[in-house]
Structures are given as C-alpha cells and as structure tokens.
Automatic annotation (TrEMBL):
Residues 33-151, 164-241 form the Ig-like domain. InterPro entries: B30.2/SPRY, B30.2/SPRY_sf, BTN3A2-like_Ig-C, ConA-like_dom_sf, Ig-like_dom, Ig-like_dom_sf, Ig-like_fold, Ig_sub. It comes from Salvelinus namaycush (Lake trout). The gene is LOC120052818. Residues 280-299 are annotated as: Disordered. Keywords: Disulfide bond, Glycoprotein, Immunoglobulin domain, Membrane, Signal, Transmembrane, Transmembrane helix. Residues 1-28 form the signal peptide. It is found in: Membrane. The chain crosses the membrane at residues 250-273. This is Butyrophilin subfamily 1 member A1-like isoform X2. GO terms for biological process: regulation of cytokine production; regulation of leukocyte cell-cell adhesion; regulation of T cell activation; T cell receptor signaling pathway. SMART domains: IG, IGv. SUPFAM superfamilies: Concanavalin A-like lectins/glucanases, Immunoglobulin. Its main location: membrane.
Length: 385
C-alpha cells in the first residue's frame, strides 16, 4: 500500500515537471519583441490605510518579462526604487527601505504582468509610481497614481467672544487626506459662505483643517460644521453659539438690580415706619398737652394721612409656580424660604433666586411690607428700626 502511493505521487510529480519544461520551451521559443508598450489604468488606484493594494502594469504584446529589468519607483526617487527586479530576481539594493518586505510582483512575469503588490499601506505611500521595464535595446515607462482617502477626527467646535456682540466659533479637525471640504451650516441647513479655511500638514502628510466664523449668539439656533471628502466620508459636529460667560453678566446685572430694589424697598418701609413713630409721638404729646377741642383737628389730620397710606396696603401672596428652584413658598403664600442649592433638584436653574406675586398692578398707589430674615445667622436683615 505505502509503496504504491509513493509511486503514484512521483508519477504525478514527473508529469508536472514534463509539463513545466514544455511550457518553458514554448515561451522561450516565442521571441521577445523589439518594441513593447505598457498598459496601466487611466485613473488613480484608491486604497485604504493598512490595506493591500495592486498597482497594475502589463506589457503589450504579452511576452515573458523574466529576462528583462523591472523597476517600480516614486516619481521623485528613481535611484532608490520601491522594487527592482533584475538578473531574474528581486534585488535587495538599491531600494527604498520604507518598502522593504512590503512589495512583490505577483501577477506572473512570464505572462507579461509586472503589477506591483503593496502591503500594509501607509499614508506616505500615497502618490505617483512609475512602472519602468527595460532590456538592452528598449525601455518603456508608465505612471500609476496611488490615492488614499483618510477620514480625520470629528470636528471640535469652540466658542469665544468675537467682539461687536458676536461670538467667534472655531471648527477644527485633523488627520485628513486628501484635502477635505469644510462647510458651515445654520439650523435651517443653509450653507454659510466662509472662505476662511486653513490647512496644515502633519509629519505623516495628513491634513488638519480649521475655520472660524463670527455669528450672533443664540441659545436655540445651532451651527454645524461638516468636513467631508465625499458623501460617504464626512464628519459633522454642532454647537449652540452661546455667548461665552453670558450667564456671568446676567448674574451680575440681576444681583445689582436685586440689591437696588431691596434698598429702595427698605427705604420706603423705613420712611413709612418713621412717619408712624412720629405720628404716635405727636399723638401722645397732643394727648397730654393739647386741649380736647384742638386734638381732633391735628391728630385727625395725621391719622387720616396714615390710614390713607395703610389703605393702599395690599395683601400680597406669592405664586409657588413661578418660584426659582431654590425658593420654597408656604401654603398661604405669605412666606418664601431660600433653600440651599445642594438640597434642591432644580439647581440647574441658572437664574437668580426670585418669586412672583399672584397680584399685579398697573397704576395707582400700592403699599406692602416685606420682612427679610436671614435664618442662618438668626438675625433680622433690613430692619430699619
Ligand atoms: C493592519 O492589518 C493587519 C492585517 O492585515 C493587522 O494585523 C494589523 O493589526 C493592522 N494594523 C492596524 C494599525 O490596523
Ligand atoms: C496582473 O496581476 C495582478 C496582480 O496579481 C492581477 O490583479 C491582474 O488581474 C493581472 N492581470 C491580468 C491581465 O491577468
Ligand atoms: C476667531 O478665533 C480664531 C482662533 O480660533 C482667531 O484666529 C480669529 O482671529 C478670531 N477672529 C476674531 C474676529 O476674533
Ligand atoms: C475620495 O475623496 C475624493 C475627494 O478628495 C472623492 O472625490 C472620492 O469620491 C472619495 N472616494 C471615495 C471612495 O469615497
């Protein structure tokens, strides 16, 4: 059994050898033409990073290229080719070390196919290659362009103050190849014309892109920045062009207004209280010194004024629904309490603490009293005595 199989195998091997010898004889018999041309693709060869790619190059007419010299080189570097085939073998030197171990001729030289296969493609491999075939009497060369689309990082949008009430929105992204297109769009998807696009190249030959735009600040109308090579190869980011630090300004304005209002209110309350005290004093004075006939005239006038003022006094209640996250209103609407921000869930509310009254006035005179107490120090604030 064992011997039989071995015999069969050697039989097959012998037949293959005979066939091979026969083929060689046929090709050798076909004379190499005096002149030949090279056939390469018209357009660029597109590849991806780290992929394997073939740069086609074929002889016409078809004949065995094995006795010839095949040289593949970058247009700018003919002295250090990516691959050199000479004297029936691929040469170790002089070749570009960047291509060592990554290039081969896999198409079949005996069939006039000198296509170059390039593995683990890098960004630096992009560009023009020359396929150069020569014998002692004739040479021919043709260019093949290797192109690679590399999609860069997602655009990063930043907003800065731009002067003149506008904001300066910047969009930037890196790692693109070839040069991408940058487009600004508003909320309505309308393109915003902007020629201010800057490209810079990194050490790998990939491009960084950036652009800036002056835009009116807004809390609801976003801006988008799209960077694209094609419809399939694009990246987009959006931003609300908030005015930077706008909340700080709003906070300061609110604070100043609140303080002004508070001091105005306490002044009014103080004046009214002082007026009352004065009246009380005068009342008691006149009660002891003045005659009973005189009293009703003077006292009556002062009291009448006071009651008139008190007559404007409004019964103000606060509306819990309008209260800021840090304000809690009692059931009767008469008292509002400030709660420390930590304890509330609504602390995302950026506005200054406030609450509105249920009542509102448009004209006439109104009067109400406000008592302000700071319970944390257990001391009355705004007490004017
Ligand atoms: C490149 O491709 C090879 C296989 O073809 C893989 O092993 C390797 O991890 C890839 N490298 C990168 C950086 O993608
Ligand atoms: C030449 O070789 C390349 C690489 O192996 C192959 O892709 C191509 O189809 C070959 N051309 C012909 C005409 O066989
Ligand atoms: C906007 O910001 C960019 C930097 O991101 C800067 O180069 C540009 O001068 C700024 N434009 C204005 C008008 O401030
Ligand atoms: C590669 O990028 C170019 C633009 O630079 C584009 O025209 C082409 O369609 C892209 N290729 C693919 C496969 O998306």
């Amino acid at each position: 059994m064992e011997t039989n199989r071995r015999i069969t195998r050697s039989g097959v091997l012998l037949r293959v050898l005979i066939l091979a010898a026969f083929t060689v004889t046929i090709t050798a018999q076909k004379p190499a033409p005096e002149v030949f041309t090279l056939t390469v693709p018209n357009g660029p060869i597109l590849t991806r990073l780290n992929a394997s790619v073939t740069l086609p190059c074929e002889l016409s007419p078809i004949f065995n290229v094995e006795p010839l010299e095949v040289r593949w080189y970058r247009s700018e570097n003919s002295n250090r080719p990516a691959l050199l085939y000479k004297d029936h073998k691929i040469q170790e030197a002089p070749v570009d070390p960047r291509y060592r171990g990554r290039v081969s001729l896999t198409g079949g030289l005996e069939r006039g196919n000198v296509s170059l296969t390039l593995e683990r493609v890098t960004v630096e491999d992009r560009g023009e290659y020359v396929c150069h075939v020569s014998n002692e009497r004739w040479y021919e060369k043709a260019n093949v362009y290797l192109s690679m689309n590399v999609t860069g990082s997602a655009p990063v949008l930043s907003v800065a103050s731009g002067g003149g009430g506008q904001v300066n929105v910047t969009c930037s992204s890196e790692g693109w190849s070839p040069q991408p297109k940058l487009t600004w769009r508003n909320k309505e998807e309308t393109e915003i014309k902007n020629e201010q696009v800057l490209f810079t190249s990194d050490s790998q030959g990939l491009l960084s892109v950036s652009s800036w735009l002056l835009y009116p600040p807004s809390d609801s109308d976003w801006l988008s920045c799209t960077i694209s090579l094609s419809e399939e190869e694009k990246r987009e980011s959006r931003v609300l062009p908030h005015k930077p630090g706008a909340w700080k300004e709003a906070f300061i304005v609110t604070l100043v207004l609140s303080l002004l209002l508070l001091s105005a209110l306490s002044t009014v309350v103080c004046i009214l209280l002082k007026h009352r005290d004065q009246m009380k004093r005068e009342q008691s004075k006149s009660g002891t010194e003045n005659s009973l006939e005189k009293q009703p005239v003077k006292e009556g006038k002062n009291l009448q004024d006071w009651h008139q003022v008190k007559g404007f006094k409004e019964n103000i209640t606060m509306d819990e629904n309008t209260a800021h996250g840090t304000i809690r209103v009692t059931q009767d609407g008469k008292t509002a309490q400030y709660i420390k921000e930590k304890e509330t869930m609504k602390s995302s509310d950026q506005r200054h603490p406030h609450v509105l009254a249920n009542q509102s006035f448009r004209s006439e005179q109104h009067y109400w009293e406000v008592k302000v107490r700071d319970e944390t120090v257990d001391k009355a604030v705004g007490d004017c005595g």
